[in-house]
Amino acid sequence: MSVPEVPRLGFGAANVGNLYREVSDAAAHAILEAAWDAGIRYFDTASHHGLGLSERRLGAFLREHR
What we know:
This protein is mostly helical and 66 residues long. Helix content is 38%, strand content 6%. Helix 1 links the parallel strand 1 and strand 2 (43-44).
């Protein structure tokens, strides 16, 4: 069985779930867009980041970038 490769650099998406301070939808999108434009394709989030807000924002963003 082969082991999937994971990039060395990823994006921790807690910040787009309002973990430390409130982030608007537009700012969250801009943050994710900047990460995407920088070549990031590995994103990490968890449901406790903003009670799922991070996952919802990241999911909406990734749907646009299929």
